[in-house]
Predict the 3D structure of the following.
Amino acid sequence: MCLYFFFFSFMSFIFMIYFIMNNLVIFFEWELISLNSVSVVMSILLDWMSLLFMMFVLMISSVVIYYSKSYMSSELNLFRFIILVVLFVFSMILLILSPNIISILLGWDGLGLVSYCLVIYYQNNKSYNAGMLTALSNRIGDVLILMVISWMLNYGSWNYIFYLDFMKNDFIMFFIGIMIIMASMTKSAQIPFSSWLPAAMAAPTPVSALVHSSTLVTAGVYLLIRFNLLITKIFFIKILLLMGMLTMFMAGISANYEYDLKKIIALSTLSQLGLMMSILSMGFSDLAFFHLLTHAMFKALLFMCSGVIIHMMNNTQDIRYMGGISIYLPMTCLCLNISNMALCGIPFLAGFYSKDLILEMVSFSSLNMMVFMFYYISTGLTMFYTIRLLMYLMVNDLNLLSIYNLYDEDYIMIKSMFVLLFMSLISGSFLSWMIFYYPYLVYLPFNLKMMVIYVSVIGGVLGFLVSNMSIYSVNKFIFSYNLSSFLCLMWFMPSLSTYGLNYYFLNLGQNLLKIIDMGWSEMYTGQGILYILKNYSSFYNIFQMNNLKIYLFSFIIWMMFIMYMLFLSII
């Protein structure tokens, strides 16, 4: 299966080169059913954007499936797992190739359903809770897409791609745009729907590598890129800018307080999604797409490296137990370091080309100081948690076992990681040459141009100081425990979305059931009638315990009563 996916990825790349050179767009319509004047049509849109994104999705999924052969080798149901991953990829491809809102819903809902099945793959209470949180959060987006479908009935066709340009000032399109933005916020986990993304870490690590790089969480960003002609005119896009920046900032802070290896990487994904959403809301959809693709490569690689480390560490995910692994796992640490540097935007790696360009365009734009500060502080926080993670994993002492055997010889995992390592090195440069018809060259004052380097250096130094395990550690001074409960829990968002939306309502229902259905209602209806009838029947049962004696006794009483009445009548 991985070879097929890799072949299709290569073919998609060849077609994309041809399409981008000739500026081609091909629109397929396949009529499924035609009855009287009603025709059900399946539409496919092939342009450079859909082909390029499909190439990245297929390449990452082929590498992840190959990686799973080793990572999931001890599983009894490995075939079922591979089938679920393939369904997941097909749902994403359907969403990518769809110019029609109905087929987008099929892919969108397919992603939500299969992601639930994958999150609950390890069957325990934590996985079930995480799966329900993921499914219900995504369900909000599904409902909004259904509402878009019903609003689009007025246009006579669901092929939104045809009339986005000349219908964008229509009043109905205003509501459609708001619903599309909100649906994308649920799928791409923006505030206030952020809590499901770290919870989805209950899934196996290969699934996390696929979900957090190129499939589930990127669906919302891709949908907004397709609808970008419509949403730029809507005032609601300013709210998306604010929410994207807050998500970026919140995830960056929370990652610094987190000790779960996979959750730190998940929160870095959340931070990058906030970056994509906020730059998209400023009108730079091509930059958002560029960062989406470069981010996919090094984020998948990060998760695969974390999977190897978790395997070697006896399935421990707490970074406080890890340390000194660079000596024993050199290949894995090479991949981890390069992917982390790409995430931070170190020059000439994949993340540098997109991230640096985004920050320069922010500096160049006419937005306020708050936007500027959020972007640069979040960039510094990325460096902060990355250096902290590397210090915990590679520099500090191993705290797991006294006797250990760490090795780096799982060649299936190593080979799959090296494919993504190569792409993390070159994807930024070759995408910047292909996507943009002319090179972006942003002229800025020296200090503004160097601002990225300033905040990165400050963030790196703070990350080093915080993760230093000596007695003079800054950790004790910077991270107060009263503050950490607020910051580590993503501003209490998991509590609000779990307890606020589920627990309190379910608890209210339980109390109503106990007091009314099983309390007053029972006493005054079924249970009360049963109680009265039971008392009466037990009372009458006393008279029937010894029938003859009671009969004779009653006969004597009856005769005495008659005699008494006769006596009264004679007198």
Q: What stands out?
A: Residues 493-524 form the longest helix (32 residues). The first strand starts at residue 26 and ends at 35. The mean pLDDT is 83. The beta strands are 26-35, 38-46.
